[in-house]
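Subject: design request, 270 residues
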């Protein structure tokens, strides 16, 4: 969970209107002739239609989603402060970790060749899989898309909080022959970020989409987490811990006014 998750295709580049939609990503530029600038063309001002509010549809979903953090991590939630509402035991000890590594070695031989395509795609931009599963995009379901962003933003911070507490060694640090096929992220192993964010995304969406989609959402979350184990990036207990935390995060999210606002709007899209 490295570059493309935080600074590239996950946060701003190809998931939000760059290459995932068919373009090449990066920053768009718009050329204009120097001798005939558009600003030189007189048009009536549109003040009454937009002033003084910045229209909600113009907000970058990633940036709007940041605003829920002050609510989630603040002291004023109806159910109390967030840390008191999440319980996560420490990771397994050395003996159990070595048993888990033996399992990962088997997966690397028996499962990785067939799973390689999914591993690479989900490492680059795994949230797109949810849009594909639901047959939606930011244009057709803007509030559902924003709901996913809100959940992910909170999940990112919670995940890093516990990773810093537990500092669990990555499997390939103990067993280099696991040789993950993608770059090993620059943060600790427990809990698994893909496992946490996948589960949180799926259970958040299950509160707004039709019931016939629920099983598929949970299965997609399971597959994404399992593929990180096949890749040698996470232990099975990392993934289980991510799921455990995600299930505790959602009720806290539901206490946040901004999340409830977006959730209410998202419900009308289904």
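Subject: RE: design request

Done. Sequence follows.
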């Amino acid at each position: 969970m490295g570059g493309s998750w935080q600074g590239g295709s996950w946060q701003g580049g190809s998931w939000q209107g760059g290459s995932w939609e068919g373009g090449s990503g990066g920053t768009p530029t718009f050329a204009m002739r120097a001798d005939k600038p558009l600003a030189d063309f007189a048009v009536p001002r549109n003040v009454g239609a937009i002033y003084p509010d910045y229209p909600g549809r113009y907000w970058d979903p990633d940036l709007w989603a940041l605003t829920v953090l002050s609510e989630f991590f603040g002291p004023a939630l109806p159910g109390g402060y967030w840390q008191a509402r999440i319980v996560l035991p420490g990771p397994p000890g050395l003996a159990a970790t070595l048993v888990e590594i033996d399992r990962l070695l088997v997966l690397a031989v028996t499962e990785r060749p067939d799973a390689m395509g999914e591993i690479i795609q989900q490492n680059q931009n795994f949230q797109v899989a949810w849009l594909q599963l639901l047959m939606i995009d930011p244009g057709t379901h803007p509030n559902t898309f924003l709901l996913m962003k809100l959940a992910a933003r909170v999940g990112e911070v919670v995940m890093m909080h516990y990773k810093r507490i537990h500092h669990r060694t990555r499997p390939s640090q103990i067993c280099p022959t696991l040789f993950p096929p993608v770059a090993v992220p620059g943060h600790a192993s427990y809990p698994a970020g893909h496992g946490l964010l996948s589960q949180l995304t799926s259970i958040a969406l299950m509160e707004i989409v039709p019931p016939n989609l629920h099983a598929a959402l949970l299965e997609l979350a399971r597959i994404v987490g399992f593929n990180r184990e096949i890749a040698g990036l996470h232990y099975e207990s990392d993934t289980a811990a991510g799921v455990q935390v995600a299930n505790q995060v959602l009720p806290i999210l539901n206490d946040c006014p901004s999340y409830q606002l977006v959730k209410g709007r998202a419900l009308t899209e289904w």
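Residues 59-267 form a domain with the Vanadium-containing Chloroperoxidase; domain 1 fold (CATH 1.20.144.10).
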